Each structure stands twice: as C-alpha cells, then as structure tokens.
Recover the amino acids of this structure.
C-alpha cells in the first residue's frame, strides 16, 4: 500500500496556505504583538463541546480561549428544549506561540472533565494531520470521481489512504490513472453472498479516521462497525426514509413522486437508517424518464456527500438523541 | 344551500388565468370587435401521427387562436397527452359546437379522455371540503376562494369535529351561506352514506386534513376524484402524525404531498410535493408550523392545477401535471 507520506510532509507548507485560502482566514489584524516589531501569525482553531447542560459553560470556554489571547470569531451554542444537554462549536484564532498546541488540548480537557463532557474535540487545521479516510465503492463511480477531483482542488481537506471496491477496474480508466498519478492504492475486494471480506477491509482501513461509502452497495455488519469503531458516512440516493435499499431511483420513478433526493448519513447496523447528516432535493415531473431521474439523483448525491464530509471535517456534526444529528 | 350564482360570471373573468382579449382574432363586422374568451382542452389517447394537426386545425377552423400548447408522449409508451389554451369568439364557435367538434376528434382517436373547459361560461367546479380538527388548510382555502383565487363553488363543509358558532370558520361560512355539517364518526361507523348524500352532486372532493379513511366502497360509489393533502413527503411517514414521525427520524427536510385518494392510505397518484429545510434548531412546534405552511401551499397548488385541467392520470400510479 503506497501511502502519500512524502507528499504529506511537503504539502504541509502548501496545506497551510491552501487552508487559509478557503478556510476562515488566518489574520494578522486580530491579536497583539509579543514584540512590536514582529506581528504574530494567528492561526484558526475549532472546538466542539458536548456535555450535560448547566450554568457557566460558555463563560468557562470563552474565558479559556481569551486567557491565552485567542480571539473568538464564531460561536454556536445549542441547548435543545426540555433536554439537559449542551452543544457548542467555537471558531477562534490564536497565536500558537502564546498557546502551544499541546497546552490547548490540556486546557480544554480540564474543562471537559469539569463538565463531564460527552465530547470535547479541538482541531487546528493547519497543524493537525488531515483526516485519513478510505473510500469504498461498488460499480457506480460518479461520487468517487467528484471526491477525487475536489480533493485534488484542495476542497476536501482529507488524506485519502486508499480506495476499496468490490468491482474491478481496468488500469486505463480515468479513476485508475488518477489514483496511480496520486499514489493512492486501489484494492479490488470481490464480495460474495457468503463472504463480505470484512476482515480484509478492516485490515486496510483500521488506521483511517473515518470511512466514506461512496455508493458501496454491500452491507457492513454490526461486527465490522464495532471493530472499526469509528464513524462511517454513507450516501443514499434517495430521500430517506423513503426508498431504502436497492435502486431507490427506480422506486421513486415508479412511485410517481414529484421530488427526488439524496441523503448522507452515518452507517449503523440497520440498512439506510443511521443518523442523517444532510439531505437535498430536486424537482421531477412527468417529463422525466428513468434516465433523467438517475442523472438528477447522481448530481444530488455528489453535492450531498461532499457537503456532509466537509461538515464532518469542520467538526460541525454531533450526535443528537438516538437517531439525529446537530449540524452547526 | 345558497349558491353564489350571480357573482360567478364576473368572478371568473377576474380570477381566471387567461384574460379575454380584444387584440387577437378578427371582427365579424368592422364596427364591432368580438370579445374573445379563453378555452382549455386536454386530450389523452393512444399515440398516432397527426393528432396535433387535427386538434389545432379544429381550433383554427373556427377562428380560435392557440396561445399555449403542451404535448407529452412518454418514452416507449404508446400514449399521447396534450393540453391547449386558446381564445375564441363564442359567436363564431358556440359552446356546444366546441364540445361536438372535439368529441368527433376524440372518437377518431379512441380517446381515453377529452375535456373542454371554457371558464367564463362553464359552471364552476362544485366541491365539498372535508376536515377533522386541524383547520389551517380549510381557512387558507376559504380565504383564497373569497379572494377569487380558487375558482370553485364550495357547496358545503363536512367535519367529524364540532365547531362552536362563534369561531372564525363558522362565522365565515355563515356569512357566505356555506353550510357546515358536523358528521361525527366512530370506529364502527364512518357514516359514509350520509357523507355520500351530502357530496354526491359535487365535481370533486377535497380532504383538507380529514383524518378518516374513505372506504373503497365510498370511493366507488362517489366515482369522482378526491384530492387529499398529506402532511409528509410521501412515501415517507404515511398515516398519523407525520410531522412527529419526521421529527423523531431526524430528517433535514420535511414536506407535504397532495395526491388523489385511493383505497390504500396515502398511496394514490401524487399531484404536487413541496419541501422545507429543518435542522436541530427546530423543535416539534416549528416542524408542525413549517409543515402547516407547506400543506396550505401544496393543497392550493394542487387544486388550482386540477381546476385548470393540468392534471392527468399517467400509468398506474402517477400523474402528468402540465
């Protein structure tokens, strides 16, 4: 398996710059100079917090940031009605000299313990390693192609560790040439009714931060999900909970609906039933045939999956209740 | 039952989608320009070469001017749909002659459906509205009707829920002479015979949040179209409390669906669907509020399309909506 190790390290300088281009911008205007002749470079950080609700959380969190010279540029707090739970997401800029990365982890951890947080995650995109993801797909590759192109354009802030498919692809196809050019390995793992090759898949993906099923048409068992232990995001080409399972576009076409959609969601044991992250629709009418239903659906899947992954990488997606998500 | 007969003619000319025009068409007599009035014709038959030519020629031969024309022939299916909007001089082309002429063509092509409608002459569609407890859809329809935006005659309102006489709806209905019939239902008795008696002379029914299922027998006995509004994005969330179902499911989009009623609950051919975004910041109350706004718009749009002859059956369970 060829990992893009060398590329990662030499990209780090560019990564910083490409991040600042499309991410919320690093700024030289906020914050103070340590030394009047050198203005510090401030870099962005994100913190999400999820804990039982009580008085004083925002005060503590914001004070933690301010005390180290960090400047909060955005803040989202959500406390649902009649539920004793607190969610926040803050975007701030800070001077990593004044507030070293490891210190930041410690400081937030202290608050997390104090409030018995269910989740407290800090991310400094320009310093932290990119999320490592593996992509799984079957025969339809429009979602994969979209993701690869976005990734190449720097719009998908991840490291693609490998691509796994239960469908073989010839080396002279667009995808295979693309992957080879970028040193991303492609693993053909054919599945059968009896054998879903989950152990082999687990070996390949166990070091990834999360998985993306980009039209992977095999069910991942509960055992696999438990062993892998991390999030798996799927794109379903239907507006859940309508049209679960196979061929939702044909189901929609036969049902005579006037709107079709796509849904990205977390994968659970139960098919197409995990917490929904994002949904998108488009109008259809009698003038659409199955072909145009499929075309509109594919366009929606690409946008919907990209949006979900982007939100996830930006720490915008949090679990809410049993079956829902908060998406800041 | 008091009908709004005297107001009907002028009400249509105001609210109809096509203005009567003095610019198209020719004068019979140079000193009098004819008043041209709009007509709509929908045609549904087996496909063949020459249908459009025949239909358009039929209209032109009588001096009618086609202002809009929609034709739809589905892929790989031997069926033809068209809808034409035209203006014509009723002196040159009398109303009953219009019927005859189109009927001839309908027979030529063994049409499954050929309907002509001249909104300013033909009687308005007579409809009955049924509802249960939630009345936001009914209120919306009554107000649109009052504003002349819903080109129907409301013959009566039927509900399995009693309403006090000093409520907005009851005072409105009384002011406009529309009777309200409280027909309470139980699990054993849906009182469909009585409902049938009240609605048998209507052109179609509108279920504006009527929460009882109409049986296959009733639908067969009534024989005409019944339009329902379902406060969910079918086929998701059929049945009761779809807003709560959607809320619990954690969807990010909620919707409303208007459809024709069949024996099977919430499963008939869909006419119109609308959606709105929801997020974690929505509680059940705002889910319901957004849903109600969607229901009103969706139902009104469906009824308007239906009255304008835009809705045609397509296949077993679908619709063409021009």
């Amino acid at each position: 398996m060829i990992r893009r190790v060398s590329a990662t390290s030499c990209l780090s300088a560019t990564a910083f710059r490409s991040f600042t281009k499309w991410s919320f911008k690093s700024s030289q205007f906020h914050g103070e100079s340590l030394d009047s002749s050198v203005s510090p470079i401030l870099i962005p950080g994100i913190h999400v917090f999820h804990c039982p609700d009580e008085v004083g959380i925002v005060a503590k969190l914001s004070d933690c940031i301010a005390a180290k010279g960090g400047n909060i540029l955005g803040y989202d707090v959500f406390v649902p009605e009649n539920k004793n739970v607190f969610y926040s997401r803050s975007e701030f800029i800070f001077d990593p000299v004044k507030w070293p990365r490891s210190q930041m982890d410690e400081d937030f951890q202290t608050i997390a313990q104090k409030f018995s947080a269910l989740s407290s995650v800090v991310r400094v995109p320009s310093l932290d390693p990119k999320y490592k993801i593996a992509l799984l797909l079957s025969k339809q590759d429009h979602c994969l192609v979209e993701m690869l192109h976005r990734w190449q354009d720097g719009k998908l802030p991840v490291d693609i560790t490998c691509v796994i498919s239960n469908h073989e692809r010839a080396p002279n196809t667009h995808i295979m040439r693309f992957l080879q050019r970028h040193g991303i390995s492609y693993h053909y793992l054919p599945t059968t009714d009896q054998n879903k090759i989950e152990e082999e898949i687990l070996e390949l993906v166990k070091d990834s931060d999360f998985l993306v099923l980009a039209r992977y048409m095999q069910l991942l068992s509960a055992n696999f999900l438990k062993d892998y232990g991390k999030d798996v995001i799927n794109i379903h080409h239907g507006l859940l909970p309508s049209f679960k399972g196979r061929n939702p576009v044909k189901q929609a076409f036969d049902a005579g609906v006037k709107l079709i959609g796509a849904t990205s969601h977390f994968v659970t044991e139960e098919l197409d039933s995990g917490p929904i992250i994002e949904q998108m629709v488009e109008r259809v009418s009698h003038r659409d045939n199955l072909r145009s239903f499929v075309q509109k659906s594919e366009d929606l899947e690409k946008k919907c999956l990209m949006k979900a992954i982007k939100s996830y990488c930006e720490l915008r997606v949090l679990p809410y209740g049993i079956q829902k998500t908060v998406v800041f």
Observations:
- The two ends of chain A are 36 Å apart (CA to CA).
